[in-house]
Amino acid sequence: MDQKFFADSHTHSEHSFDGSEKVRSLASAAEKKGLYAITISDHCECHEYFEKNVACDISASAEDIITIRDEFEGRLIIRTGIELGQPTQDVKAAKDALSLAHYDFVLGSLHNLRGEQDFYFLRYPDAAAAQDLMDRYMTELYELAKQDLFDSLAHIDYPLRYMKGEAGLEIKMSDYQEKLDAVLELLVRNDKALEINTSGLRQKIGRTLPDKTVLMRYRELGGKLVTVGSDAHNAADVGSGIEQAYELLKECGYDSAVFFTDRKPTLLPV
Question: Residues 6 or more apart from 51 whose CB is under 8 A from it?
Fold first, then answer.
């Protein structure tokens, strides 16, 4: 596939709590792999924003991105992003974070429910327990979708990375179709994008987050805006799965992916 317009809109540097690479290293990896553009979207876990002084990391990330842009001019487009985790749980923190820098792109995500740990840390003794958590997740995800703080909704079926991929439970997004449709309809109504997160291709779940079924349903409901992100936390994973995601978009009837600059989408042919 022609890589002319491959863009990775979801990556993490050392300024994310779980990242390991310099911003420059991520950009260098993107250039070497022939990507058109990359967005560094470091974590802002809003429910921990004030407690853990997350503002320092977020500001440092934005500063590093601005510093290296000229270095790569004409070779790679580099954009400033942020991943707002759990903005539903502290709206003030989310708004404060967005005031720290000029962002090109804002991801909205939900890694944990109110009063719970990240789904990564939870244990799923049986399907009933997982189903209850998933039902609560879809309810809070709808709250997130109602907010006007983000540009693209990240890894919409995030809990399934662990419920299905790690615990092997047969839980599907279609089990929550009414709530899923409500979320997707909000995205369409508010001109928000849906993300294809390719991290699942590197994990036990073995597929993109979400899968073809959800992408098709988003399109059926009128959705046209899809961002693609590797969710890389190291240089080796930058751009990973982008080609498969673009092929998936074509299979689902999309003509383009989108890449954000100044919070506005640019269409990239697939």
Answer: none
**Which whole-number Å values give the CA distances from 167 to 120, 159, 176, 269, in the listed order?**
11, 11, 19, 37
Angle of CA points 222, 224, 229, to nearest 5°: 135
Class for the domain spanning 7-269: alpha beta
Q: Angle formed by the axes of helices 177-189 and 212-220, to 10°?
A: 50
Element spanning 196, H or E: strand 193-197
Q: What does each of the 270 residues of the chain score in pLDDT, given as a tens digit?
A: 456 899 999 999 999 999 999 999 999 999 999 999 999 999 999 999 999 999 999 999 999 999 999 999 999 999 999 999 999 999 999 999 999 999 999 999 999 999 999 999 999 989 999 999 999 999 999 999 999 999 999 999 999 999 999 999 999 999 999 999 999 999 999 999 999 999 999 999 999 999 999 999 999 999 999 999 999 999 999 999 999 999 999 999 999 999 999 999 999 999
Q: What are phi and psi of 178, to 5 degrees?
A: -65, -45
Quick one: CA torsion of 67, 11, 27, 251, rounded to 10 degrees?
Answer: -140
Residue 10 near residue 196, CB atoms below 8 Å: no
Integer CA distances (angstroms), 177 to 126, 144, 146, 184, in order: 21, 17, 18, 10
Rounded to whole angstroms, the Cα distance separating 240 from 236 reads 8
Helix residue spans in 108-159 (DSSP H)? 127-146
